[in-house]
C-alpha cells in the first residue's frame, strides 16, 4: 500500500492486467506517444495526460498501439478485435469525441451479443476523460455517462477516487461485456492510499462513503468528494448524511439506493451531467416509483443548467455543482415536507 | 493456377445456394410472411463465393445489409439463416437479429450490418486480432460502392495501412447506393482512393467466378503474407431492388434483363466448366437439384419453427450483469 495518484492508479491497473493477460492491448491517440516524426522519441507522452506512460516500453508496439486521429476507425477496430479474441482497452481521450464514433459503440459493440443471439462476447473497455472544471469549454468538458447508460449492452463506470479507479478498471478489463470507463479530468492528480497488488471492485455495488440518518446524498464520480465535504460540514451543524457512490451507472445498485432512502426519508442527487434525462432524473424516477412512501420531503437534484459548458472561470463555477450547492440543497430538504394529508 | 475440382464443385454449390435462397426469399417476401427488410444478393454471387473460396474457417469477414450471400459463402448454416429471416427461435441468432444481422463468429462471420460502412472498422480489429494472436488469419471487409463514401471506410483504409494489417477491402460495386448512382455519388475512382493510401489495388468482373477467384487469391495471399492491406474492386450488377419492394424506377427499362442475360455468374460458370471440361455438367445438375431440395426444406422448417418466447426478450443483452 502506498499513496498513488488517480493517474498512477489507472496506469498500474493497465500494467498489471497486461502482464496477467497477453490478449489485453491498448490503442488510442498518443497512448504510445512519440511514434514517427523527425525525432521519433518513443514513449514520450503516454496519452495526453500521461496515463499510459511507460507501457509502450514494457509491452512493445504490438500491444500499445498509437492510432491516427481517427476515432471511428480505431473504436470500431477495438470492437472488432474484442469480438475476435483480444481484450482491447481503447482510449478516446475526451469523451466529447464520441460524436465521431458513436456508431461503433452504440450500433456495433453494444448490440453484438443480443443481435447475434448470445453468440458473441465483446470484452472491450473504452476509457475517456469527462467533466467540467478545467476551462476546457463546451467540446471538452461534458459528462456524457447518461448517454451511454441509455444504451442497452453497455456497462458504465464512473470512479470517484484513485482506489476506486484501480479496482474498477481491473474489473472492467476482466469483464466480458463492453465497458465505458470515464475518468474525471480534474481528478488525475488526486492522491490516496492504493494497494500495490491487483484487486477488483464489483460493478453494481454502491459504496457508502458517509453514513447518516437524515438525508441520503447520491453523488457520481467527482461529485462524491464534494458530497463528502458537504456532509462533513453538515455533520457539524447537526445534520447527518449518507453519501452513496453508485460507482457504475449501469448496472445501478437500485437496492442500496432504495434502502438508504427508506432509512433517511430524504434524497439529494448530485450529478454534473446535463439536467435533462440524466442520472439524477433516472434515480428520482426509481425512488418515486419504489420508495415514494418513505419520502419525508421532495427529492432535490443538484445539477448544472441546461446549457453547454461555458469557458470563462466565473461562468464555469456557476455552472458546476459544488459543496456549497449540495449543503444548501440538504438544508432545503430538511426544511421541506411532503404535502400533509388532511 | 488451376482451381481444384473440389473447390469448383463447392463454389458452384455455394453460388447456386445463394441464388436459390434469394429467389425463394423474393417470392416468399411477396406473400407478406417475412417480416422486416430484406436485401437480396442475386446477380452478385460470384463475388462472395470467389473471395471466400480463398479463405479458411478461421479467417474473418464482415458483411453489409446485403449479407445473405456472404454468410452462405462463409459456411453459415442455411437452415439457421432461413429460420432467422422468419424470426424464429431456431434462427442462427435465435430470431433476435434478422436478415440484416446474421452472424456466426464460429465460422468467422462477423455479421451482416445494418449500418452502411459499419464493417470496415470492425475488420481492422479482426485483422489486428489475427496479427496479435499470430494465427496467420486474414480479415475481409465486404462493402458497397455506397459505403465506399462513408468516413468509416476511408478511415479504415488509412488505419489498416498505418497498422500494416492483414486485411482485404472488397468493394462490391453494383453501381447504386440505394437509388443513387455510383457515377454521381463516388468522386474520383476506387483505384485512386487505394493509391491515395498507398494500398495495392485489383479489380475484376464480378459476374465471372474465375476472375473473382483469381484476383481474390492474389489479394488474400498478399495480405496473409504480411505485406499489408489490399483493395479488391468487384464490378457487379444487382438483379433486384435495394430492398424487396423497391420497384427500381431509377433503372433503365432493360438494365436488369440485360444483366440477367449477359452477366449470370452461374451460366458463365457452367459454360466455362463445359468448354474446358473442368467438370461434368451432370454433376452441376445434381447440385442444382440438391440445392432446390435444401432450400425447400429450409423454408418449410422455418415456417414450422417455434417463435421466441418472453424469456428470450431479456436474454443475452450482457454476458453477465
Please explain how this structure is put together.
The complex is a heterodimer of chains A (342) and B (321). Chain A is globular. Chain A is α/β, with parallel strands linked by helices. Chain A contains 12 helices and 14 strands. The N and C termini of chain A lie far apart (58 Å). Chain A has helices spanning 6-20, 55-59, 71-82, 102-109, 112-115, 145-149, 162-174, 223-236, 254-264, 279-290, 313-319, 323-335; strands spanning 2-5, 24-28, 64-66, 87-94, 125-130, 155-157, 179-184, 191-194, 207-210, 215-219, 241-245, 248-250, 267-270, 300-302. The mean pLDDT of chain A is 96. Chain A has 2 domains: 2-194, Rossmann fold; 207-335, Rossmann fold. The model of chain B has no long low-confidence stretch (mean pLDDT 97). Chain B is built from 13 helices and 7 strands. Chain B has helices at 5-30, 45-52, 68-73, 78-85, 119-133, 151-162, 182-185, 190-196, 209-224, 255-262, 265-275, 281-304, 310-314, and strands at residues 60-62, 139-144, 167-173, 176-177, 180-181, 201-205, 230-235. Chain B has one domain: Thiamin diphosphate (ThDP)-binding fold, Pyr/PP domains (Rossmann fold), CATH 3.40.50. Chain B has 321 residues and is α/β, with parallel strands linked by helices. Chains A and B meet through α3, α4 and α5 of A and α5 and α6 of B.
